[in-house]
Write a structure and sequence with these properties.
- By secondary structure, the protein is an all-beta fold.
- The chain has a single domain, classed as Distorted Sandwich (Beta-galactosidase, Chain A, domain 5).
- It contains no helices and 24 strands.
- A hairpin with a 4-residue loop joins strand 19 and strand 20.
- The mean pLDDT is about 95.
Length: about 290
């Protein structure tokens, strides 16, 4: 069974599993639960780390330097056992490195560290990717946290996502898991999107660019979560029909395009790290604790 670590401070408690370095729970001091519970009736995930791809690949394969490799949707990190590298009462760091299990599907010597850290009412989740290889390394990375919808104490209240930049970013959809070429009008109005479950009947809403570096997810007259994103230019919102959660997903990388190449380095917003380089990606969320 996967091990787990609990980090906490006077405001929040967060549980993180060694499997996928995935959060299992976020609980405020007053006992309110903010993270989705992972009920497999709808979706067993809670907050998976997406690496080395975000989204789906054509035929569940990617091409690297002309050779084809199997690659499941969202990559292998979420199904991998991480090692605990460091922990304090309010922080833990899990690490994953290239191994005999990863090289047949991703032929690079990589490192992936995922850190969860509490500071007051704010939780920061950061991923650091390192290229330990002698060749350039393409990858995508993303976060997939699911928060309860409705938020605690806000049943029956309208919920909205509000972008800090007040923008109306264009919308794209996926077809059979691949990025559709059609660019659709933005569902945001003046940076605000009032959520309706019917919006997700056609799967995730994806905003490749323009959503900015911060947003709020909240209920009218009720609690609100405030997010900040670092080096994560893409945003997706997703739930399953009838499910009581909303995924707020900041990414650097997206699914392959419908009818496009399966080459890993041609996927939208792919990151390419030179040998010896590292890159950091992070989101933070400020959570009310009811004090």
């Amino acid at each position: 069974m996967p091990a787990s670590v609990r980090i906490e401070n006077e405001h929040l408690t967060v549980d993180i599993s060694s499997l996928g370095a995935e959060m299992q729970a976020i609980t405020s001091r007053d006992g309110r639960a903010w993270l989705w519970s992972g009920d497999a009736t709808f979706w067993s995930g809670r907050s998976p780390i997406l690496f080395p791809i975000v989204g789906k690949a054509p035929g569940d394969t990617v091409s690297i330097d002309g050779k084809t490799y199997p690659m499941a949707q969202h990559g292998f990190a979420r199904r991998s056992e991480f090692s605990l590298a460091a922990s304090t009462p309010a922080m833990c760091r899990y690490e994953l490195a290239a191994s005999e299990a990863t090289r047949p599907v991703y032929p690079f010597e990589f490192s992936l560290a995922v850190e969860h850290r509490l500071d007051g009412h704010t939780l920061t989740v950061a991923a650091e990717v390192g290229n330990r290889d002698v060749k350039a390394m393409p990858f995508g990375i993303g976060f997939h946290p699911a928060f309860v919808w409705p938020l605690p104490g806000a049943a029956g209240q309208p919920h909205a996502v509000t972008l800090d930049n007040g923008a109306e970013p264009p919308l794209v959809r996926v077809q059979a898991g691949l990025l559709d070429s059609a660019v659709l009008p933005s569902p945001f109005q003046g940076g605000r999107l009032e959520l309706d479950p019917a919006m997700f009947d056609a799967d995730a809403m994806i905003f490749p660019e323009g959503a900015g570096t911060g947003l709020a997810y909240g209920a009218k007259g009720g609690p609100s979560l405030r997010f900040q994103f670092d080096n994560l230019p893409n945003l997706a919102l997703w739930t399953k029909p009838g499910a009581p959660f909303l995924c707020i997903e900041p990414w650097h990388g997206m699914a392959a395009r419908t009818g496009g190449s399966n080459a890993l380095d041609e996927r939208p917003y792919t990151v390419t790290l030179e040998p010896g380089a590292t890159a950091r990606f992070a989101f933070s969320v400020e959570i009310p604790s009811g004090e």
